[in-house]
Amino acid sequence: MVNDKFTGKNGQQRTFWDDIESRVADPLPAVKIAIKEAIDRSGLSREEIVDAMNRLGVLAKIKRRISLDVLNKWTAESAEERIIHMELLLLFCMATGNYLPLEVYVKAFAGVRLVSEERYRVLQWAEAEIAARKAKKAAKKRAQEVGIEQ
Question: The whole model's pTM is what?
Answer without folding.
Answer: 0.61
